[in-house]
Each structure stands twice: as C-alpha cells, then as structure tokens.
Amino acid sequence: MLIASLKRLEATVAAETEALLSHRPFDQEAVNLRKSQSLLELTRLTRGLDPERVPPDIADQLARLSLALNRNQGVVGQHLRAVEEISEIVTQAIRDSESDGTYSGHPRR
Questions:
Q1: 0.85 exceeded by pTM
Q2: What domain range is 26 assigned to?
Q3: On the chain, which terminus has fewer CB atoms closer than 10 Å, C or N?
Q4: 91 inside domain
Q5: HEC string for the chain
Q6: What are the φ/ψ torsions at residue 99 (nearest 5 degrees)?
Q7: Angle at CA of residue 74, ends 73 and 75, nearest 5°
Q8: pLDDT, tens digit (0-9, with 9 covering 90-100), for 26-52
Q9: pLDDT tens digit string along 74-94?
C-alpha cells in the first residue's frame, strides 16, 4: 500500500512537470489537491516506520519520487520566475501608460 501511494504521488508530480514543460493547460487546483491527499496518505502510512529499517523496494521508490520532486521543483521555479518577469513588464507598462511624463527625465512621446 505504501509503494502504491508513493507511485501515485510520483505520477502526479511527473504529470505536472510534463504539463509545465510542454506548456499544456492543466488544472493546477486539481493537481495541488491530489498532491495534498497523497501527502496526507503518506503521513498516515508511515507512522511508526523506522527510517533505518526501510525495505529496499520502498527505498527505491522513495529515490524515484525524490528525483521526480527535484525535477518538478526546478520546473515550477522556472515558471514562477517567468511569471514574476511578466508581472514586472505589465506593471511597468501600466505605469508608463498612466504617466504623463511630468516627473520623469524622459518627455512622453
């Protein structure tokens, strides 16, 4: 059951990563809900699990999940930086359009 839960979380994270990389629209709210549910399930399934005595098959699946999460973190971070840059461009464009140039060093054309 634990391995199945880890695989579901890995599949969810990988699907989100691929959607972001391919610029496909996807339901971010649904993805976040599935990730939250997976984390809750994992929390419940790993209560009392001794980290020093994790079976090899679970350790292997945890390693795959870790790789998927690291890749996802990089892709999500890249998209957040892009959103910030676009936001700054739009904000500056709005400021420029609302300004009559009175207080700037550059007269408005």
A1: no
A2: 2-47+56-98
A3: C
A4: yes
A5: CHHHHHHHHHHHHHHHHHHHHCCCCCCHHHHHHHHHHHHHHHHHHCCCCCHHHCCHHHHHHHHHHHHHHHHHHHHHHHHHHHHHHHHHHHHHHHHHHHCCCCCCCCCCC
A6: -90, 140
A7: 95
A8: 999 999 999 999 999 999 999 988 989
A9: 999 999 999 999 999 999 999
